[in-house]
Amino acid sequence: MPSAREYNFDGLVGPSHNYAGLSFGNVASFSNVKSASNPKQAALQGLAKMRALAARGFAQAVLPPHARPDFRMLRRLGFGGTDADVLARAYREAPVILACAYSASPMWTANAATVSPSADSGDGRAHFTAANLNNKLHRAHEHVQSTRTLRALFGDERHFAVHDALPSTPAFGDEGAANHTRLAASHGDKGVQLFVYGRVEFDPSAPAPKRYPARQTLEASQAIARLHELDAGRTVFASQNPDVIDQGVFHNDVIAVGNGNVLFYHEQAFADETQVLNQLRAAMDAAGAQLAPLRVDTRDVPVADAVTSYLFNSQLLSKPDGAMALVIPHECRENAAVSRYLERLVGEGGPVDELIEFDLRQSMRNGGGPACLRLRVALTEAESRAMHQGVIMTEALYAQLAEWVETHYRDRLEPKDLADPQLAIECAQALEELERILGLPGLYDLS
User: Fold this and answer.
1) Is 427 considered catalytic here?
2) In this structure, is residue 406 part of a structural domain?
3) Is 175 a catalytic residue?
4) Is residue 79 in some structural domain?
């Protein structure tokens, strides 16, 4: 197999970043509802992470934000007149819908799509399926721009296949890579695709949470595996523990993360831990690799601490020396149990020997940590050359984007500001310039 390198495509936080508390089941998002946000700080925090990881030699790229507000959605829901009229009436009659139209949630690109590298697909191409995110109104319209963006970046059909989102019905609820991970001896080797689901649409007797919604269905995961032409012997479908969903683990990447042959997970992550590990070991054996499970016990880190700190919503990155670094948010250090665990983790001689810490407070307060902010794409050298080069993070691109943020972003945004027609104008002007910076003319339909 040709060698491959994993790129992390981080979401560039959009200028409408705000705390509307739209994501029921996401504890952090709900906890900060209607507080003032700082879009400028949020974007700069994300850019600082991208810059630092690129400087360390990790392959880093950027996924641009979506156009906001979504006037098409607002007009489809009966708000007419000029753009200013639409905003004023929506704010007056349905402020929650206006907040949905303004949501900057595409910043969490782990939800943009599910990605399968060419080493695993039947046709030898890298496959992408944009997530329909149909569980929440503020995210259910993202797949249109996500698909458009992915096709702009990965348009060479000799190397890439970008699929439309699955049908937006409850049976095919799909939240993208947040409920998917890939395990392999190396990024270029044949690997195992692990899909984690929260409910089964066509089996009412299957386990399901009682308090919070399960956003990913087994049926959606199975459909993506078919679209990506995955080998059944190296594909595992695992049921998430419904009890932890009800404790705020709205996506699997809040309770588990994998990289290389390592699965870093909480003991309560899966409905049947033993079964999942046995399936993974068999699939990894079929791929010529050996699973290295890294289990975190409840007595060391209770689920509540895992959720508030986002310990598992960290990034596991392979270093050139064969070891791994764990990219964590500051919140992991602020939680006593998690901080103690991390000190033991890096000192015990296991696969993780380094912690890389970032301040992502603006994103964390809205319910997204380091892993939420990135979409992982393993690419061969030929595929790397075939993708659009203008989004690869360099020091020069960082400088351009930081200046762009300083020019176009507000440093305070409150719910009432969403009714300001000037904010919509500022967002549109910012994205027009971003198309030029990234070399992606026509990325947005701003008509």
Assistant:
1) no
2) yes
3) yes
4) no
